[in-house]
């Protein structure tokens, strides 16, 4: 999680120096918040190293398949949203709120599922 926060802060600092153009394939704000939320969960899994953790490759592949995006689209959109620091901060406050809500619910699973896991879901190694 520290890496993702550091990653986002780096983009925030870079974006303050220049104007960022709207990406050709803009990800809607709500969807971007969902992506940031999932990134936070995946970073937590990696940092806890539960049963060997999860590889960066499988975490990234999971995000790209789930949201039907690629790495370039993710980076361009992250940079675009980070250009507006106040709005980006609000997005992360929403992520933080969702994470807090999930951890406060007894027996809550931070990543709700709609059935059995499928082949695209990253598995803890």
From TrEMBL:
It comes from Flavobacterium rivulicola. Signal peptide: none annotated. The lineage of its organism: Bacteria, Pseudomonadati, Bacteroidota, Flavobacteriia, Flavobacteriales. It holds the Pfam family DUF4296. This is DUF4296 domain-containing protein. Residues 97-125 are annotated as: Disordered. Residues 23-104 form the DUF4296 domain. Residues 106-125 have a biased composition (Low complexity). PROSITE patterns: PROKAR_LIPOPROTEIN (PS51257). InterPro entries: DUF4296 (IPR025381).
